[in-house]
């Protein structure tokens, strides 16, 4: 994660937050959500945005009271002790690992729009392994390039989004829309699924408070920054869905690359090729940046006495934690070979779910702790917390049984490693 000098300005926090929230899901999920949510798909997106905002406000509370790097696992450790803190941190690292896999899968899925052969298992798996090896090599030589890659992919992402909206407005003004029909209202097939996929698009919101705490006056600025980011991203997600439904009509349900198909309708094959290229660069940039951040997070946990073996924190001559890199890339590679994109994003939401629980219950436990600064107080107090717990409980119902089993297996694996390390100390 980027480091900032104390006192970063409000617009910088908002832009950073918007960039952190918007990922590959914006480009790939409109068709899936339309098939699931039908006539209520826009409602599903809006409710997901509201739900994410409620959870993000609890991050704002905790980051304004505990000014330490680490986020949810630090809050949980302070409130409930060593093992709960470790478990939340373990799932926080898993979030990064799965993000690498999911964004790589999104990259390869997007590439099939230019090279259909990528969709065959042999080519797909070979490219996936090749990308994982490349990420490992890049990480081995240190993190100096990570920030530049992140900045470049962010600019490309913004360019793609603006291009879609501007092209659609011009298309409508020219009257070309009369050739197509806006997508008809369809019955709801799976509202919970639509909500879950929409919620995935917001999962980067947990980065907002961590960056915003570098502000001079987080107590006042954090809530404004979070609300601004969440309103802006909700508007972008809703607008992209509306554009897809308007331009593609009922063809949206059968589109695997909806944003690319929007450009195919408006500008033809050349426009589609250009936008797919932009999407690919934006998506792979996220995977690369995350591949640098995740091993560092694992190494920081290894440096915490009794959390993980010290081997994961040892640095090579380039300052890179080799053990953490190897484990991160190995698990990411295994996940991309074993799961589909939709399965991977469900795992992302599950891994974040554990961090949400840690943060929310830590805010309850530490609410009356006089040893901590007063910090930001939630409007509505405990009632907003109760409402957030209800939201999180509903989010849990969107997980498939297989997803929960994977989560339990990962928790057991982490517990075994943690127990062995405890005995060593």
UniProtKB/TrEMBL annotation:
Membrane topology reported for the UniProt record: Multi-pass membrane protein
KW Membrane (keyword) present: yes
One MF annotation (Gene Ontology) recorded for this entry: transmembrane transporter activity
GO terms under cellular component: plasma membrane
Cellular localization per UniProt: Cell membrane
Chief location: membrane
Pfam families the UniProt entry points to: AA_permease_2 (PF13520)
Listed transmembrane segments: 7-28, 40-62, 83-102, 122-142, 154-174, 194-212, 224-248, 274-294, 315-337, 385-418
Keywords assigned: Cell membrane, Membrane, Transmembrane, Transmembrane helix
Protein name in UniProt: Amino acid permease
């Amino acid at each position: 994660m980027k480091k900032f000098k104390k006192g970063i300005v409000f617009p910088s926090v908002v832009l950073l937050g918007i960039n952190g929230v918007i990922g590959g899901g914006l480009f790939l999920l409109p068709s899936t959500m339309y098939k699931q949510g039908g006539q209520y798909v826009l409602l599903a997106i809006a409710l997901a945005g509201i739900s994410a905002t409620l959870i993000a406000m609890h991050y704002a509370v905790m980051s304004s009271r505990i000014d330490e790097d680490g986020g949810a696992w630090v809050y949980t450790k302070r409130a409930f002790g060593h093992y709960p803190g470790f478990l939340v941190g373990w799932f926080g690292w898993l979030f990064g690992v799965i993000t690498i896999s999911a964004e790589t899968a999104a990259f390869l899925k997007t590439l099939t729009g230019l090279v259909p052969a990528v969709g065959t298992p042999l080519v797909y798996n070979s490219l996936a392994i090749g990308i994982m090896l490349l990420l490992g090599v890049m990480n081995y030589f240190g993190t100096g390039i990570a920030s530049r890659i992140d900045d470049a992919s962010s600019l490309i992402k913004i360019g793609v989004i603006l291009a879609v909206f501007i092209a659609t407005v011009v298309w409508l003004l020219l009257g070309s829309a009369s050739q197509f029909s806006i997508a008809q209202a369809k019955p709801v097939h799976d509202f919970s699924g639509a909500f879950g996929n929409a919620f995935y698009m917001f999962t980067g919101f947990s980065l907002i408070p961590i960056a915003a705490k570098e502000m001079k006056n987080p107590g006042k600025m954090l809530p404004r920054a979070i609300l601004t980011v969440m309103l802006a991203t909700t508007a972008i997600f809703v607008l992209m869905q509306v554009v897809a439904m308007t331009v593609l009509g009922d063809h949206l349900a059968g589109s695997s690359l909806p944003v690319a198909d929007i450009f195919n309708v408006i500008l033809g094959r050349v426009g589609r090729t250009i936008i797919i290229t932009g999407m690919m660069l934006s998506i792979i940039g996220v995977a690369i940046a995350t591949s640098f951040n995740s091993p560092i997070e694992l190494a920081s946990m290894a440096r915490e006495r009794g959390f993980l073996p010290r081997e994961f924190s040892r640095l090579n001559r380039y300052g890179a934690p080799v053990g953490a890199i190897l484990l991160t890339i190995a698990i990411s590679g295994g996940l991309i070979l074993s799961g589909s994109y939709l399965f991977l994003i469900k795992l992302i939401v599950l891994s974040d779910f554990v961090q949400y629980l840690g943060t929310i219950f830590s805010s309850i436990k530490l609410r009356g702790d006089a040893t901590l600064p007063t910090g930001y107080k939630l409007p509505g107090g405990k009632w907003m917390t109760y409402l957030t717990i209800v939201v999180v409980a509903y989010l849990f119902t969107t997980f498939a049984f297989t997803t929960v089993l994977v989560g339990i297996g990962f928790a057991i694996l982490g517990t075994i490693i943690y127990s062995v390390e405890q005995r060593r100390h």
